[in-house]
């Protein structure tokens, strides 16, 4: 029997803008921090981690603009 929890996050984006990849990168890092808390982990997340994700989300968002 699984006694865990399930967190579902839904992001509704009505319009893709130049700021959308930054929002998504920010959420990515927030969820990484939340994962650390939930899992009682001390995995280091660099301050500039969002920049890596920003570049990835930027290329993905560009495909749909």
Task: Pick out its properties.
65 residues, single chain, mainly alpha, 0% strand
Q: DSSP strand (E) fraction?
A: under 5%
Residues in helices, as a percent range = 40-55%
Radius of gyration: 14 Å
What oligomeric assembly is this protein in? single chain
Overall shape: it is flat
| End-to-end Cα distance | 44 Å
Q: Low-confidence segments, ≥5 residues, pLDDT <50? A: none
Number of helices: 2
- Main pleated-sheet profile: none
Structural class: mainly alpha
H and E order: HH
Number of strands: 0
Query: What is the averaged pLDDT score?
Result: 92
Overview in brief:
The protein is mostly helical. It has helices at 20-38, 49-62.
Verbal overview:
This protein has 65 residues and is mainly α. The chain is 51% helix and 0% strand. The protein has helices spanning 20-38, 49-62. The protein is flat. 6% of the residues are buried. The model has no long low-confidence stretch (mean pLDDT 92).
Architecture blueprint of SSEs:
Layout: H1 20-38, H2 49-62
Helix pairs in contact: 1-2
